[in-house]
Design a protein that fits this description.
168 residues; four-stranded antiparallel beta sheet; 10 strands
Length: 168
């Protein structure tokens, strides 16, 4: 049985994005911990005020800026990219977009993305009845819609407010 995974194409996407300059400037680890996905993005040397995380149409975008070092230095090696970088993740429908949290500590941006309540597995209780003969009858619940009610067979009947109050 396969588990629900809103990031099921992530391996393919990660292998494609790992070849981009933004990915080398923003390496990321992504894992699932219980009912939460966690993304850790390395952003050393980035001004925390330049970090921007937003979600639009199920696309999470991370932007950050690492300022260029002074030109006064005589570089012997210059491997850390500078400038503005952006990285995007396409989120599945099973995550709670309104509950994403972001924290930046010691050069690491941590995004916590909870699984949506409706996407979590749940146990469905099965009601069963013992049938003695074929004549068992099941009494249906009545669902009210304004001044009209409908039983399980779909029959509708008008009921006055007084009748509704008595049956409540």
């Amino acid at each position: 049985m396969s588990r629900f995974d809103p990031f099921r194409d992530l391996d393919r996407l990660m292998s494609e994005t790992m070849r981009t300059p933004a990915a080398s400037a923003m390496p990321m680890d992504l894992f699932r911990a219980g009912e939460t996905f966690v993304a850790r993005v390395d952003l050393p040397g980035v001004d925390p005020g330049s970090i921007d995380v937003d979600v639009e149409d199920r696309t999470l975008t991370i932007r950050a800026e690492r300022r260029e070092e002074s030109d006064a230095e005589q570089w012997l090696s210059h491997e850390r990219p500078a400038g503005t970088f952006a990285r995007q993740l396409t989120l599945g429908y099973g995550v709670a977009l309104d509950r994403i949290e972001a924290d930046y500590t010691d050069g690491v941006l941590t995004l916590t993305i909870p699984v949506a309540e409706e996407a979590r597995p749940r146990k469905i209780q099965v009601a069963h009845r013992s049938g003695l003969g074929g004549g068992d009858s099941v009494r249906g619940e009545v669902t009210q819609h304004g001044d009209r009610s409908e039983d399980e067979s779909g029959e509708q009947s008008d009921r006055s407010g007084e009748e509704q109050a008595r049956s409540a």
